[in-house]
Amino acid sequence: MKVFEYEKLEKATENFSKSRLIGKGSHGCVYKGILEDGKIIAIKKQSLGLQKIQDYSKLENEVSILSSLSENSFIVNFLGTSNNNSAKNETFLIMEYLPNGTLHEMLHAKIVPPPWPKRAQVAIQVAKAIEFLHQTKPSIVHRDIKSTNVLFDSNWNAKLADLGLALRMKNDCEDDDPCSPSHRSNSVTRPAGTIGYLDPSYTKPSKLSTKNDIFSFGVLLLEIMSSRKVIDVSKSPVSIVDWATTLIKEGRDLEICDKRMHVPWYMEGTIKNMLRIATRCVSTKKITRPSIQEIVMEMENVIVEPTKYPLWNILRSLTLLKRKRKRCRKDCSIITTTVTKTCAQHEGKVQKDMSRRTLLIREILADKVMQ
């Protein structure tokens, strides 16, 4: 783990100028820094509130978790730390700089909303980020999956950020047994997260589970598809989960979709599959929620390929339609031929019967004449 000189960070951010502030949250602020060699970095600084009470636990926790992870293309890259010794050893996180904002901005602030294939791509990239965290040994629960914590790099690839609330499970136990080792080990850490995304079953420390992240991901999926805020007091129901699940139960899936964007017919199947996944994720029964591995596998099978080659799928659908029509014409031709043959045979039989009857009448009349 690289340690950056604090003085260089001051210079890179113009002494942490407000003009360099690019992000702000409850736990800290993020500044854009330009190093002497021209490299652009993001610097996370503890919030003033936490500094006053000298609570550096969240930043230290994030350093601990990020430094233990191998580099992953779906997680914001951790570059190192820095310490300000003159301010009671204040710690700073140095991360890669992602220039294209957050998913929240893409969904809610932009005039031109993202196209459907892009939404599907973002969903699978976030799912793979969560999969990476859950597959580490022991598993890492992010606890704060939301649209403001999904950032875009220069190529508009999505990356999951902000592991300040993340926790390691002491083992991979997923049951609700309060006596299990995983529950005992996390018994001192209070539930945390963001209202709207927070799993309602996560009511006490012993309820910590990777399935908490699955619920949050389900909410995020609904937000991606609808561009509706997860909690909107101007609408009824207020919660995106209550609103969307009601529509899905009534078979009105496509009414959830962002009204600003037309849904092309070749994307309908993909969108419905995403909504079905979201519904399973936000289930009130934690045990019925799918694992992130199941979600990624399903998305790769029914979402990634159709959206990756939409033109190919259009051509494929047209080819299948032509084959179906050709088959129908062939079947109709066979039926017509059969009917024609049957009618011809029937007509011949009738004519034959008529000939026999005519002959029989002639014979009877001849006999009468002879008599």
Note down, in words, how this protein is organized.
The protein is an alpha+beta fold. The protein has eleven helices and ten strands. The strands form three sheets. It has a six-stranded mixed sheet, with helices on both faces. A two-stranded antiparallel sheet has the order 7-10. It has a two-stranded antiparallel sheet with strand order 8-9. A hairpin with a 5-residue loop joins strand 8 and strand 9. The termini are far apart. 31% of the residues are buried. Belongs to the protein kinase superfamily. This is Serine/threonine-protein kinase-like protein At5g23170. GO terms for molecular function: ATP binding; protein serine/threonine kinase activity.
Describe the structure in brief.
This protein has 371 residues and is α+β, with helices and mostly antiparallel strands.
Helix-strand layout with pairing:
Elements: E1 2-3, H1 6-12, E2 21-24, E3 28-34, E4 40-46, H2 48-52, H3 57-68, E5 78-84, E6 90-96, H4 103-108, H5 116-135, E7 140-141, E8 150-152, E9 158-160, E10 167-168, H6 181-185, H7 210-226, H8 240-249, H9 268-281, H10 292-308, H11 310-370
Parallel strand pairs: 1-5
Antiparallel strand pairs: 2-3, 3-4, 4-6, 5-6, 7-10, 8-9
Helix pairs in contact: 5-7, 5-10, 7-9, 9-10
Keywords: ATP-binding, Kinase, Nucleotide-binding, Serine/threonine-protein kinase, Transferase
Domain Protein kinase: 16-303
Protein name: Serine/threonine-protein kinase-like protein At5g23170
